[in-house]
Specification:
473 residues, 30% helix, four-stranded mixed beta sheet, 14 helices, Urease, subunit C, domain 1, disordered C terminus, 18 strands
Length: 473
């Protein structure tokens, strides 16, 4: 017997929104039709003419847990995600301890399993731990990275020698390398040249467009020199120059008849909807890596997303508390919160005709699932047989984004006052986790999404952790 019938909903079919009903059983979508003439089901959800799309997959979050839980925890981060229409996340490795060995991975997985209200994958870190990469892959890390080519929060940046060896190992395993592409030599040189510059846009000039372009070029050349190149995903691509390099490499790979490697890239909302024009307003709240770019660059990234040069959108949710940011630009930590505002900002962009709803769905759910190989786990599409991960929204319900209304533990947002269309409801595997007013999901209901290399079946009993072992929340 079906578990849930969603009625009075609209879905996108052949480029048009049409009335429909959605039938869910055992966490999966089992039917989408104009009307189901059945009477036996456990629950009915009246969508009240809202639009249903696949819930978002955020492939780039930093939930700070374990080790920095005063900034965020797996509970608060996942609740914030659910309230923003995200049903799955991939968490990056720069926590304390870092996810660079078995102990770090297992501790994080335990914390996530105990706290997360949505499904999650865990990325493996790459430092001087090359001998640990195979072990991490077999344990079930989703991908490797972000791999830092320049200094950033957490201090996981590596030199070119280690970087090349890491890509070689990752390529031989058939895994995916997620790259934070900034050139550290250029950064250091500009730091020295601009030593006495305290303007609010100095961070963008220390890490200019050329800083990203150089690192992307170096990464692609190093990878192409390997006997077995790695699949590459560029995190938070922020410049048209980098996008052009990625485009050229994609075209070369697609022309090959064999041994193709996958090259993909993501962009963040802050690199599309904010720019250096916001520096004086945001001050240190606008500091992140890569930094804010010009308004022309921001517009070019929206165009790159629409044209297919960029494959996905991710938040790079990297929260710091307001008091930590309340200092000089040089002393302030880099990173901004964003997991709860990713989908609302993108839906507002659809309403403003900056992107089509069809393309928005591709870059926030379908493509991330394919890139990170979780489509095989039922993620990424609103179709029969896939997980019933759904976002229901009213296209007319545009609201100003306000930090006081968000659910992250972080107490501010760089998008304060900007337009957002927030979910009226979020479902994760057929269960309502956000009802439009509050997160109603049970703590710890989220499932671990194992990577391709996992050699043993997921055993939830191994994820149990006593309360006294848990970080303070």
């Amino acid at each position: 017997m079906p578990d849930v019938l969603i009625k009075n909903v609209r879905v996108l079919q052949d480029g048009r929104l049409t009335p429909a009903e959605i039938l869910i059983e055992d966490e999966k979508i089992i039917g989408i039709a104009k009307e189901f003439r059945i009477s036996n089901f456990n629950e009915t959800i009246d969508a009240k003419n809202m639009v249903a799309i696949p819930a978002g997959i955020d492939g780039h979050v930093h939930f700070r847990d374990p080790g920095m839980t005063y900034k965020e925890t797996w509970l608060t981060g996942s609740q914030s995600a659910a309230a923003g229409g995200i049903a799955a996340v991939l968490e990056h490795p720069n926590t304390m301890p870092t996810t660079t060995d078995k102990a770090g991975f297992e501790l994080k997985r335990k914390q996530a399993k105990k706290k997360s209200v949505i499904d999650f994958g865990i990325n493996g870190g790459v430092t001087n731990n090359l001998e640990k990469l195979s072990e991490l892959w077999k344990l079930g890390v989703s991908v490797f990275g972000e791999i830092f080519m320049a200094e950033s929060t957490g201090g996981l940046n590596i030199d070119k020698n280690v970087f090349e060896k890491a890509l070689s190992k990752i390529g031989k395993m058939g895994a995916l390398a997620c790259i934070h592409a900034e050139d550290d030599a250029m950064r250091l040189q500009n730091e020295a040249l601009l030593l006495n510059d305290n303007s609010w846009d100095v961070h963008s000039r220390i890490r200019p467009n050329e800083c990203e372009e150089t690192a992307v070029r170096d990464c692609l050349l190093i990878n192409q020199s390997l006997k077995k190149p790695a699949n590459i995903h560029f995190c938070h691509t922020s410049t048209p120059e980098a996008a052009a390099l990625i485009k050229n490499t994609k075209e070369k790979e697609s022309s090959k008849t064999e041994n193709q490697i996958r090259i993909t890239a993501e962009v963040t909302p802050h690199h599309m909807f904010l720019s250096t024009k916001d520096c004086n307003r945001l001050k240190t709240l606008g500091k992140m890596n890569p930094p804010l770019r010009s308004s022309e660059d921001a517009a070019s990234m929206i165009s790159a997303l629409n044209s297919g040069l960029i494959d996905a959108v991710a938040s790079d949710h990297a929260p710091h508390m307001y008091y930590e940011k309340e200092t000089t630009m040089r002393a302030a930590p880099s990173g901004v919160p964003g997991v709860e505002t990713l989908m609302p900002l993108m839906l507002a962009a659809v309403r403003k005709n900056l992107i089509s709803l069809e393309r928005m769905i591709q870059v926030t759910s379908q493509n991330p699932a394919l890139i990170f190989n979780i489509d095989r786990l039922g993620k990424g599409k609103m179709e029969v047989g896939y997980d019933a991960d759904l976002l229901l929204f009213d296209p007319k319900n545009v609201q100003p984004i306000k930090a006081k209304n968000l659910h992250t533990q972080c107490d501010w947002t760089p998008y304060e006052g900007m337009d957002g269309i927030f979910p009226g409801m979020t479902l994760s595997r057929g269960e309502v986790v956000w009802d439009g007013n509050q997160v109603i999901a049970k703590k710890g209901r989220g499932k671990f999404l194992p990577g391709l290399g996992m050699t043993s079946p997921d055993d939830d009993s191994k994820n149990e952790v006593d309360d006294e072992d848990e970080d303070e929340e």
